[in-house]
């Protein structure tokens, strides 16, 4: 199984910093660590508290300190607000692997949802009482996730959204949260973690007056699924006589396929006798528009689009309406991504009139691999041809 992980969050209205903090890491053996923490209040103070809590927990888990022990150390270390008598930061921490073994520890956050299809499953848990603060309890869950299961975590900004408004006197509530998740999964059973998390946060914002969040709102989703594979062919092969071989590899690939580069697209078109069809220019900005080819999911221009795609990924601009934005969506919808990179140099890339930030293809792809693995938890391989 592949574990698809994503978190979507928005800041409280008129604040410059997120009061909620999410951090996760995927080990080479497929083990996943993730923590969602909610700092007391909002703004810079809440950001510092939630960041400290989540990063400390992640470090403990990386060092193989048992997650229950690590969480209790954090809980015992965090102070309690003297006025409101509640913790300065709450958290949900999860450790999972690709065999479906899951351990979740919660303190203060709304209880997570374990979804089987569009039905909720309530896992058993036991409580660990803090040795320093007897009124603060850890909820500890341990279970085996099945293929297709989802785990949905949120801060109280979701369940309390709209609280005090005429339509939501008690807020969105946990019951409303559950109903919405069930409905979203019934409509789209294959929805990705990123899309589901985004939809939940948007729905919570709709409960707020004028959609202005009165608290930080965060949602994190884990989805245990079969890996979605993609192959991206960019750049002509070093040996021209192998054009037909690599074209066959692309078209016979069992997964989504993309071509980045006009020369590469023309190569595939020539070898496969499939025409490249230019798409009308619509809000493409400064980038050349995408094209279509039978049997290929996405066709874009090469180095300019790849460079802009890297920029969007680094800056987390995930909804841009141009060719690079289309490539970002393509990448984020897949779990394992293989780049087939041609080694023949294109002299156009050395034109001194081109912007200095444009790098040669292989360096852009190397950077993209690092960003996709570290920031978006994808498995990425590069083959030079």
CATH topology of the largest domain: Phosphatase 2c, domain 1
How many strand elements? 18
- Major sheet description: 7 strands, mixed
Q: Give Rg in angstroms.
A: 23 Å
Mean pLDDT value: 88
C-alpha geometry: elongated
Proportion of residues in extended strands: 25-35%
CATH class call of the largest domain: Alpha Beta
Write up this protein.
This protein is of the alpha+beta class and 385 residues long. The chain folds into two domains: 2-225, PPM-type phosphatase domain (Phosphatase 2c, domain 1, 4-Layer Sandwich), CATH 3.60.40; 229-384, no CATH class. Helix content is 32%, strand content 28%. The protein contains ten helices and 18 strands. The protein has helices spanning 43-62, 67-77, 156-159, 173-187, 193-206, 243-252, 262-272, 303-315, 323-332, 361-376; strands at 2-10, 20-26, 32-39, 89-96, 101-107, 113-116, 119-121, 125-129, 137-144, 149-154, 217-225, 229-234, 256-260, 277-278, 291-293, 296-300, 336-341, 379-384. The strands form three sheets. The chain has a seven-stranded mixed β-sheet, with helices on both faces. Strands 2-3-4-5-9-8 form a six-stranded antiparallel β-sheet, covered by helices on one side. Strands 1-11-10-6-7 form a five-stranded antiparallel β-sheet. α1 (43-62) packs antiparallel against α2 and α6 (243-252) crosses α7.
Compact summary:
The protein has ten helices and 18 strands. About 1% of the residues have low confidence. By secondary structure, the protein is α+β, with helices and mostly antiparallel strands.
């Amino acid at each position: 199984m592949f574990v698809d992980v994503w978190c979507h969050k928005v800041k409280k209205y008129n604040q410059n910093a997120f009061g909620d903090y999410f951090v996760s890491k995927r080990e080479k053996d497929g083990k996943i660590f993730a923590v969602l923490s909610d700092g007391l209040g909002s703004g810079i103070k809440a950001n510092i508290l939630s960041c400290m809590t989540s990063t400390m927990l992640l470090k403990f888990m990386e060092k193989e300190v048992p997650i229950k022990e690590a969480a209790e150390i954090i809980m015992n270390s965090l102070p309690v607000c003297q006025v409101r008598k509640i913790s300065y930061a709450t958290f949900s921490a999860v450790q999972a692997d690709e065999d479906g073994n899951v351990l979740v520890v919660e303190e203060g956050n709304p209880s997570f949802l374990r979804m089987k299809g569009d039905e909720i499953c309530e896992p058993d848990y036991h409580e660990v009482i803090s040795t320093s603060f007897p009124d603060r309890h850890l909820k500890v869950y341990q279970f085996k996730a099945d293929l297709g299961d989802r785990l949905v975590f949120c801060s109280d900004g979701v369940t309390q959204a709209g609280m005090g408004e005429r339509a939501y006197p008690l807020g969105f509530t946990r019951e409303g949260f559950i109903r919405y998740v069930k409905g979203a999964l019934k409509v789209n059973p294959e929805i990705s973690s990123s899309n589901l998390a985004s939809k939940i946060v948007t729905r919570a914002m709709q409960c707020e007056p004028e959609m202005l969040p009165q608290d930080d709102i965060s949602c994190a989703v884990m989805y245990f699924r079969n890996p979605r594979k993609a192959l991206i062919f960019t750049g002509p092969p070093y040996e021209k006589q192998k054009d037909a071989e690599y074209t066959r590899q692309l078209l016979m690939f069992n997964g989504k396929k993309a071509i980045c580069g006009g020369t590469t697209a023309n190569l595939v078109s020539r070898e496969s006798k499939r025409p490249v069809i230019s798409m009308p220019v619509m809000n493409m900005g400064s980038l050349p528009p995408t094209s279509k080819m039978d049997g290929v999911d996405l066709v874009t221009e090469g180095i300019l689009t790849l460079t802009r795609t890297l920029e969007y990924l680094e800056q987390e601009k995930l909804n841009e309406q141009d060719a690079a934005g289309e490539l970002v969506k393509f990448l984020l919808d897949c779990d394992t991504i293989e780049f087939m990179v041609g080694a023949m140099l294109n002299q156009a890339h050395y034109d001194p009139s081109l912007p200095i930030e444009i790098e040669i293809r292989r360096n852009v792809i190397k950077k993209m691999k690092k960003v996709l693995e570290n920031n978006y938890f994808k498995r990425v391989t590069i083959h030079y041809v």
